Amino acid sequence: MLTVRHVMVAASLAALALVGPAAAADNPIVIKFSHVVASDTPKGKAADKFKELAEKYTDGKVKVEVYPNSTLYKDKEELEALQLGAVQMLAPSNSKFGPIGIREFEVFDLPYILPDLKTLRKVTDGPLGARLLKLLDAKGMTGLAYWDNGFKQMTANKKLVAPADYKGLKFRIQSSKVLEAQFRALGAIPQVMAFSDVYQALQTGVVDGQENTWSNIYTQKMHEVQKYATVTNHGYIGYVVVVNKKFWDGLPPDIRAACEKAMKEATDFGNSQSAKENDDALEEIKKAGKTEIVTLTPEQDEAMRKAMMPVYKDVASRVGQPLIDEFLKETGRSPMN
Ligand code: LMR
Q1: pLDDT of 24
Q2: Is the CB of 195 under 6 A from ligand 1?
Q3: How much is the pLDDT for 22?
Q4: Which one of 77, 147, 216, 226 would you pick to mutate in the ligand 1 pocket, going by the greatest count of ligand atoms within 8 A of its CB?
Q5: Element (H, E) at 266
Q6: How many angstroms does the Cα of residue 21 sit away from the middle of ligand 1?
Q7: What is the pTM of this model?
Q8: Domain coordinates of the chain in residue numbers?
Q9: Residue 210 forms beta bridges with which residues?
């Protein structure tokens, strides 16, 4: 929740915004970029790259302050803070837009909807991706780019091989109804929780398991408190880079153009190495030797896919069946293979 202090900061920033942003190196326009993951992750590195390039292309007239690891705001607060103008830029995962009234990004959460990153690009770089970004305007945000993390794996203190293994276990989820339906389909108990609280919740047994990318598992040290990690690649985590719309529209056009160029290059940079970041994190987890990495046979993989297929029906009314159909048409794939 936002405190009175947050609101007061937002109000004074809003008052400053009325004066209009100055654009000189000795009085730079500040872009506060808040995010919840470690710097040494696909999102962390892309954010740092954006900082480097935006400052370079504007000759220091823009200063980007990156606040990683939930040091400024946690998941839900950061979206509220952006809407209030207390921060200017974020990159929340697709799964986190539901609570502010945009449910459509949850389509990316559907189990097995994306076989690989190449297929993902068909959606994000195509007309559907552009249309989804436009939905953000109504919430006072401009969607600038799609950033990758990668594919999710399941972790727990119990070995997870078959759907029945999930029964009755509590799993931390992001704030997405699709993810809630996914764990319910497995007979598990989903629990929404901020990313910054996951490690402790796993350590103290508040939840039994969670799903995340290798990079997030490793950089949050989740593998130190989870005995098993199953290679499922059952879902995708990616981000929508959003900026406060009023702030963005109010930027001098040359400054905005320079920031757009920086964003485009930071996106290409981040997305070109996200897969390697996750591969490297998996290697580090293996090296740490605290977690058994479980791989599924093709039959076990198929059983997991089958168990999760009811999710498509369960969430059709929330996400929109036409949107699900359009997504599947663009990928040209079925979630069953
Ligand atoms: C999560 O909450 O698990 C992730 O969305 C965190 C992130 O930003 O990668």
Answers
A1: 79
A2: yes
A3: 59
A4: 216
A5: helix 253-288
A6: 32
A7: 0.92
A8: 4-149+238-274, 153-235+280-331
A9: 155, 172
